[in-house]
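Schema walk-through. Below, the input block comes first and the output block second. Nothing else is stored per chain. Lengths vary across the set, and this one has 119 residues.
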Amino acid sequence: QVQLVESGGGLVQPGGSLRLSCAASGSIATIYDMSWYRQVPGKERELVAAITTSLGRTNYADSVQGRFTISRDNAGNTVYLEMNSLKPEDTAVYYCYAREYSMEWNHYWGQGTQVPVSS
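--- output ---
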């Protein structure tokens, strides 16, 4: 089992910056990768950024490329999403996600954190 706890959300003005954190606990040694997704009402949850825990390989949605950066701490149990040049269309609930392998793939979600981008 893996538990994910997000923090760092909140109201930010357009053009501003925010950093989200996701702390993982439990079976963290077998986590393969961690990601940030976001969702707005009426739309499907979409991948924002992902990072593998072992090699730190990253990938980003086109809409955030160059503005957002995903990173992890050395222990590999906390993942960050640095968001710069925020736009109103970045407004969403942001969710942390972890994929873990132990005999089979297991999928875990955090509780979500609100990020309203508004003046």
